Each structure stands twice: as structure tokens, then as C-alpha cells.
Amino acid sequence: MAARAEDLLPVEYFHLVFTLPAEIAQLAYWNKRTLYGLLFRASAQTVMTIAADPKRMGARVGMTAVLHTWGSALTHHPHIHMIVPGGGLSADGTKWVSCKPGFFLHVRVLSRLFRRLFLEGLLDLQKTGKLALFGDLASLSEPEAFAAWLHPFRRTEWVVYAKPPFGGPEAVLAYLSRYTHRVAISNNRLISADASIVTFRWKDYRIKSGDRQKIMQLVTPEFIRRFLLHVLPAGFHRIRHYGFLASANRKANIAKIRTMLGVEHQLEDHKEELAVEVSPLTLREPCPCCGGPMRIIEIFRRGQKPLSRAPPREQAA
């Protein structure tokens, strides 16, 4: 949160969501790294291309994209959440270009370009042998058969939508802190679990009005199967930055934009407003010996030796 607070600008922020059709998302069962990477590239290129159009905004925008692969019931539902400042740098990089208040870009225009870019990328992956096909889709290994299977998707509407703008930089920071690092299900949704049944709360988004909260029970092997659908390939980055927020030049671009907006002198005050109180990391489970909270002494990767020796047993507890 402290790092992201330094990147925030005093402008309106928008929240976009890019979703894959369920039939195409099925390909990711066997091609997670490839398909999720294409989803990142196609969605980011869509926003940057439309925003750079002089007829739209004519600006080089920046964005933070976050991959989620689950629905509320732990079903496979790959989609990208994208947080975008409401404006960008002009083509020559000399001024800040703001979008219209409360409006970023037309979602239908974004949807159609996203659809075209993703399908073109999918065809290229298949032609170059980078797409694995099994089960019911094994017959699509031939380029002609695969192209014919994709053809109907060129005429369907792909789901791209924009949520209402965030209520200022503070709301963006709160969103990033609690939402971007989620896993498929959090502990507070779990009601009970044993060797036979897992019971949890889920939200039925098909219900347009009224109470969406429901209770689901799954046999434990099915719950484990659904949860494991959302384990990403080793080393895969599920949070990525593009445009003027790309990591290589982010700090320089942010400083430059603040100067353009005439707010660089407010930076220190802004940091104080968004200051985060950092508390020591703890484990959720109490100590099995004394019942007290357990502290994390050190974190190290698999195969890596810890730097410090373990404390005495009574202190570790």
C-alpha cells in the first residue's frame, strides 16, 4: 500500500473488467500461462489503442491490471480487473490530457477491439503449435477446424464493462490493498469443513435484485478440485502495469505528470493522508501450546535456508 500510494495521481480513477467467454476460457485448463498471458496483453493493448485514438482521447494512458480466475462459487471464470487513471500523456509527452468527467472510454468499442485482438492472438498460438488441446477439443488441432470453431465468437458480444469511478485516490488505495491479492476463497466465507463436506457462502450474480447471498455445500474432493483450478503457474505475475505505469519508467512518469498537474508540492501532504499503519505479520491460528498469537519470525522460499536460528521454544510459541 505504501508503494502504491506514491504512484497515485490527484485525478479520477476508473475500474474496467475484461471477461472471456466460457467456451474459450475452457482452453486455459491446459494452457494457463499462454492464455492468461494473452488475456493480459489483449486487454492492455485494447485500452492503450482506443485511448491513443485522436478521435477518443489522444493520450498515452497507464493502467494496473489484476488477473482473477474464479467466480463466487469457485467456478472457472478468467477476467482482468483494470484500474486506470482518467487521462494520459499527450502524443508528444508535453502535457496531461484528461478524459471527460465521469467517463473514460466507450465499453462497446473496447469490447469489439478486445474480441478481435484476443481471437487473432489465439489463432497465432494455434498455428505456431503453442496451444494444447485435449478432451472434447482435441479434434480442433487442425488450423482450419480451429478457425471454424472460433468463427461464431467473432459475432457474439464479449463482456467488457466499466464500474463507477472510484471516489478519489484513497478509494483506489483501499481497493488495491484488499482486493488485488485475494485468492479464490477467503476464510470468512467458509462456514464449515470436514472430510466429507465443505460449506461456504457465495453470491449469485444472476439475481438482479434482492439477496444474492446463498449457501453452497460441496463434497470435499470437488471443493479441492475447484480450488486447484485457480492455482497459477509458478512465477506467473497476476498483477501487471502498462503504459506510463510500466515499472521501467513509472517513477519518472509519475513525477513528470505531477509537475504537469502542478501538484508536486502537495506530494508530502498526500503521503501523510494515505499513510498506512504497518502492523507485524501474524498467523491466524493461535499457538497450540499456550493459545497466544504466533508471530512470523522469518519468511524464506522453498529450498532457501533461514538467515536466523529459531528462537527458544517458549519465545517461538
What does this entry look like structurally?
The protein is α+β, with helices and mostly antiparallel strands. It folds into two domains: 224 residues, no CATH class; 44 residues, no CATH class. It has a five-stranded antiparallel beta sheet with strand order 6-1-3-2-10, covered by helices on one side. Strands 7-8-9 form a three-stranded antiparallel beta sheet. Strand 7 and strand 8 form a beta hairpin. Helix 3 packs across helix 4 and helix 4 runs antiparallel to helix 5. The radius of gyration is 23 Å and the shape is globular. It starts with a helix and ends with a helix. InterPro entries: Transposase_32. Pfam families: Y2_Tnp (PF04986). GO terms for molecular function: DNA binding; transposase activity. This is Transposase zinc-binding domain-containing protein. One of its GO terms (biological process) is DNA transposition.
